[in-house]
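Okay, is this right?
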Amino acid sequence: MILVRRVDGYDKAERFVREAFELFEPEFEHEVLLKPNFLKFSDPSKGCITHPDVVKAVAGYLSGRGHDVIIAEGGFYREDADRCFDSFGLRDCWKCVNVNTQKLVKLDVGGKALKTVEAGEIALKAMRSPFVSLPKMKVHTLATVTLGIKNNMGFLKKPASYMHVKINQKLVDLLKILKPAFVIADGVIGGANSEMNTEPVNHGVMVAGDNVIEVDAVCAYLMGFEPEKIGHIRKAAEEFGVDLKNMEVQGDDIESLRVNYKRNFLGRIAGHLAW
């Protein structure tokens, strides 16, 4: 089941977060890890990063119910996550971890295309206990979209350019060891053009669910794409047994919320490299 709501401003994000948690009732340990998309330090209105108001709404909800919250991310550049934590006031209230400055650990993946990876040690917690993924709804040059499945790359050692060849299969392989228990996707302001140099899309939508593959599929559809034509979503559905044609969606009408996210020229021609 997936929850979709029209959310036309970040002042309404807290209400959506509360509805999502009350509907799905996900179970967590006392300490809960949140993984936003802070690819770089950016003005949240540009549609490149998970809006800090969404992160605060989720962290505040969990804190209010007695959980200790850890917010972890590793941006494109070494200090980007720290700049986000500090500038958006997240570190003032919760423990924040810059994956890029952590001790590295080697993880056995054993996938079809990805055998091992190096990641920040916080990835061990994500592997062993339920965590929450907080992706931004935006396009990606190679993977078409970057949502919950792609958000796992933030745990990895940088640079992670080795992921770009056969990226679709590698993302599915990585999902087998890093699978979020709950996902809340921020599409209030989405990101078109490319993952790094976004053009903001005033989409006004948020999506939540306890199956990251279904969440990504619904988000991709809302962004104007056909989920079964996106390599990593289709492969993940096949390997995890998710029927993309029979997903239960609650909330607002998804057809009325569907828009077209444009990709730049490179993104339109580079998809063949992802295989």
Summary: The domain at 2-262 is CATH 3.40.50 (Rossmann fold). The chain has one domain: 2-262. The longest helix spans residues 52-64.
